[in-house]
Amino acid sequence: MIRMSDNRIGLREFTTVIFFILVTKVADGTPTMMFSKGQTATWLLPIITAVPILISFCFLSSVLKKFRNQDLLSIIFTVLGRFWGCLLGTAIVLFTIAGLLVNIRDYTQIIKTLNYPLTPETIISASIIGSSSFLAYRGVEVIGRTSWIIYPYMHAALLLLIFIISFQLVPGFLFPLGGPGAAELLRTSVTTSTLYAEVILIAILYPSVRSHEAFRNGILYGVLLSAAQISVMLLVYLTLFGYPVVANISYPFQELGMTVQIGGRVVNSQSFYLLFWIMSAIVRYSIYIYAAAAYLRRLLNVQETGALVVALGGLSWMLSSLPENGLIALLIRERGLIQYSWPFFLFFPFLLWLLARRKEKRRKPA
Amino acid sequence: MKTKAICMLAVCMLPLLVTGCWDKKELEQNAYVIAIGVDESDQKDMLEVTYLIENPQVGTSEIAKAEDEPASEKLTLTVPDWISMQDTAETILSREISFAHTRIIIIGEKLARSGRLFDFIEGGMREPTLSRMVNMVVSREKASTFLETNDPLLDTRPHKYYDLMTLRWKERGMVPMASLNRFVYEMDGDNLFLAVYTSALALYGADGKMEDQYLPGELSHTGGPEAQYIGGAVFRRGKMIGSLNGEELRLTNFLRRVDEAREMLATYPDPEDEDRHITVRITQTKNTKIRINLKSDPIHIQVTVPLNMEILQIPSRINYITNRDKQEILRSHLENSIEEKIDKLIRRTQEEFQGEPFMWYLDARRQFWTWEDYQKFNWHEKYLEAKVDVDVQIDFSGFGKTKRPVRSKS
Which residues in chain A (123-142) have CB-CB distances under 8 A to chain B? Predict the structure, then answer.
């Protein structure tokens, strides 16, 4: 069936978009950060962490359903009023942009360190931002379609990697199973729930998804799929390198690629995985840029998303080269963005739901 | 028409992207370092580093082949470390140094014993093109001498030689499997790390031992490449403190939960005829069982080693094959002599090396819930006092192609 393009995406595209946004994190500095807290039980964290964020998302989803066809920011405006809505909207936009900046910086650093030591960082980040901005410029439908097209290859390559490496793993490295202990593990799982923060932020794209069910299920499947995938990858890192050594490896995914051997012939497969990794990174950043532009469009009341995308791309290209090195960017992310922003993602949807409910009740008797 | 022209122009421009600009590398412009030899130097804070460099133009496709060039080249320099040596080396070499295909790091025993090894290894962990899984080898002589002397004739291309050699190591169990990652791991956990032990000089002469009781360099041989890889260099806290011979290494492999060796040939004294030995092929089809009682004081470790043996040679011509009683005698004799050797080895690790190379800590960890509890338990200290019971269980899986010795003695 040929359907007219309506600049909206369906369930499968949305699921894969969510998958890419989340799963790409196993290939950057995130696992290292998690291992220092979760120790030998780190592989459980993605699964435990998914629970509070999904509960939080349930509230958000019910609010979104109530205000059909409105995006997150319009709802915030309606519920909180102009002043608070504006304040919160600005905060969200700044957070999204900051996340985009430090992530791009982190990726640039990884690519520079491991693959292109001589290429200037500005060129690397320009090519990443350029490609993602191009995708974002073409709109959400193109992003969705791209991610749906590359998804099967990406996942197959990842599964192949896990299969080949499985012969070199030492299951004994899994123990002690409890890691830092159950209480600490639960605490960490709440504070690392920013791992899935995008799930809340992406609600700005609610009107761009074909139906409420597609949006809800897309998030659900996307989170479950990537939680399982991230967890398996963390298991692989742990049983290959062993704790505490693994907490000291900056880029475990790339190190893993160097370890993989197919027979005696195919070695150094990290170059092969670089391709897949960059593709998923570009999808991830394109959705970041698109979402940031969508927030801005609402906030500034501009009609044109394309111009905003271009502006955001240029801005993030310039700003992302500000931190001295990628590790500082990583520290900013770890210390600032991740450590202190989790209460927002866990409680904000609940508050929104509560306020929306009160407003509705007040309106009804009248 | 105009868009078409622009599209065509864009397509024509695309190939320009393929060059990769800054980090462009050509195959025959690179010097692939296959082995890195590291030695102590007379000068303070300096190293003597040897690169074994492979020529990618030998043994490849017909077109790129360079007929008269040798397959490899060696270069030794005295430098502050083996990473910064790259640039110093390029004042001599015409090609760009690359660690992307490094298979092996060879460390001179003197440096290994000095305790400063990790300080020099550290840079290797940071070097992005070097894999953490690269093999670690300790040579009894200087690493530069080792690389200079060893000259395999059949596998002239060094990467193939080391690839095949690693495969042999894995299958025969005479040397440990030792990676850079494992070295750092055991150093962190205060347990013993075993590195491959080697020598290319047959100077230490101790011929006439059983097949696996040698240390490297003790076997005098005629023909073949010079290097002998047998036994393990024992590291504790990043410092080499002793060595194990091939036999002890094989026993260590038995005692680890998963035996990496596939099959090995071994000889044991004949129980009925003291002057002769019998030859067996040992395979392990079932994993070694390790039970650890952490509650008792001292801790109690029970190890069950199931072995399959195929008898290959009985020079004494005693019928161990159809005579069931004799077979039982042989079985208990073999079991006892292996157990005795294992006991001796374990005492040696507890007293001489003061650490545990069998990776039993992995099994001990299963009994802890949190990492902190395990750290507090102090496995390393507890092992030194531990009571270890070893039970070797032998199954005779076959007797080769003949049924019983000809004119057997009863």
Answer: 123
